[in-house]
Specification:
By secondary structure, the protein is mostly helical. The protein contains four helices and no strands.
Amino acid sequence: MPPTRAVQLRALPPAEPAELTRWSKATSARPDLVQRARARWTRADGATFAAAARVGADASHSAIPALITRFNRRGLAVLR
């Protein structure tokens, strides 16, 4: 497996942690969006890319850096 590119997380604005928590616990949202929120939240807590991929269920180890990069650019819009 190729090494994972280092992706730095941007600081979360005050409203984003609550929104990520809401998305990660949603039962009526699309499953892929819930998985993305869980993966992002796991990474925000300092977990590795591999751990975030496991939490995100269908997300691959290499997909997490791409998700984080998109999240850094677009914020919560990535989850919609």
